[in-house]
């Protein structure tokens, strides 16, 4: 037997209240207008690696699923990021943000300048979803419960403080305000239905905590490399490089 469904959902939401990366100092700096142009660019470069790996993570998940209904429900997540004939998708929208902050989009797409810790954290998430039980793999995606709040705050903060911010450059975040609630409604219901013992609830909660660690680690990497005192590791993007012509 397990704790009640409502209590378990409350437990999952409490993980976000305590551990979600909206509380990280880098996001607070970004949303308040405190980042330099190069710190914003470093965030765009490193976050792209995460965005680009999300559909790969979801494809790995789907490859393990026997239930056609679950695959159909999950398929839209890949389309949301990769795009369709009718919709450019989240990856293309993120590259539009790269254009807006003055970065060479081919360099961003190449992922050559990504911080090692970013790469390790994101790759660990892809492996987790590929290898762990399906319940934990779905539970790890439930950070989307908390995403609309951070997207709304980001839109407001970027528009208020940065010249590059407009409807085009921020289209990724505006689209996620509609996409994330749809995804999480399905994922949350799926997890709540199947985590029917204390052991399964503990495993699902641990998976969600792992995902918050993945997101937090990415910002730790950015803060350590590009915020004073900056310590940029070998191979990572160097401020002032790989900019489009005329970018200051």
TrEMBL record:
InterPro entries to which the protein is assigned, alphabetical: Haem_Oase-like_multi-hlx, PqqC, PqqC-like, Thiaminase-2/PQQC
Cited SUPFAM superfamilies: Heme oxygenase-like
Top-level taxonomic group: Bacteria
Broad class of enzyme this protein falls into: oxidoreductase
Pathway: Cofactor biosynthesis; pyrroloquinoline quinone biosynthesis
Oxidoreductase in keyword set: yes
Thiaminase-2/PQQC domain span: 10-220
Keywords assigned by UniProt, alphabetized: Oxidoreductase, PQQ biosynthesis
The protein's Enzyme Commission number: 1.3.3.11
Transmembrane annotation, as ranges: none
An MF annotation (GO) of this entry: pyrroloquinoline-quinone synthase activity
Catalytic reaction annotation: 6-(2-amino-2-carboxyethyl)-7,8-dioxo-1,2,3,4,7,8-hexahydroquinoline-2,4-dicarboxylate + 3 O2 = pyrroloquinoline quinone + 2 H2O2 + 2 H2O + H(+)
PANTHER family to which the protein is assigned, alphabetical: 4-AMINOBENZOATE SYNTHASE (PTHR40279:SF3), PQQC-LIKE PROTEIN (PTHR40279)
Function of the molecule: Ring cyclization and eight-electron oxidation of 3a-(2-amino-2-carboxyethyl)-4,5-dioxo-4,5,6,7,8,9-hexahydroquinoline-7,9-dicarboxylic-acid to PQQ.
NCBIfam families tied to this protein: PQQ_syn_pqqC (TIGR02111)
Similarity section: Belongs to the PqqC family.
Name of this chain's protein: Pyrroloquinoline-quinone synthase
